[in-house]
Amino acid sequence: MTIRIATKKDLSAILKMASEMIDYHHSLDSYYKPSEDYKNLEETLTGDLDDKDVALLVAEDNGQIVGYIRGVVEAAPEYVKPKKIGIVFDAFVENSAREGGIGKQLFEELKKWFTTKKVKH
């Protein structure tokens, strides 16, 4: 298992997983839009690959992308002491790869990335 920064070649696998996660949320509550209503998802994720304040990490097992996590560094709200905070936007692990700790590994690597950005919260 390898956790690494995503590249453009990983985008189709990430889009598939993101769409599956979006549709799952929609199935639970119609408050959430279905994936087909996200007209700029690919554009957003592509932009994230080049954004220094966004981490898009993938879990790769035997050459297959089996999970991803996306985190961002943002200015903290004025009512808190930190100047910037880290936010996990989404995380997903394929059904066939769940229960093996991949989500935890992705989160731990994202926390390390946040540390490199001097984000403690």
Give a description of the structure.
36% of the residues lie in helices and 28% in strands. The chain is built from three helices and four strands, in the order βααβββα. The chain has a four-stranded antiparallel sheet, sandwiched between helices. The radius of gyration is 15 Å and the shape is globular.
Task: Spell out the helices and strands N to C.
Answer: EHHEEEH
* Percent in strands: 25-35%
Q: What is the count of DSSP helices, taking H or I runs of 4+ residues?
A: 3
Class from secondary-structure proportions: alpha+beta
| pLDDT averaged residue by residue | 95
Main β-sheet, spatial strand arrangement: 1-2-3-4
The total beta strand count reads: 4
Topology:
Layout: E1 2-5, H1 11-28, H2 41-50, E2 54-61, E3 64-75, E4 84-93, H3 102-116
Antiparallel strand pairs: 1-2, 2-3, 3-4
Name some characteristics of this structure:
alpha+beta; 3 helices; 28% strand
Short description:
The protein has about 120 residues and is an alpha+beta fold. The protein has helices spanning about 10-30, 40-50, 100-115; strands at about 1-5, 55-60, 65-75, 85-95. The mean pLDDT is about 95.
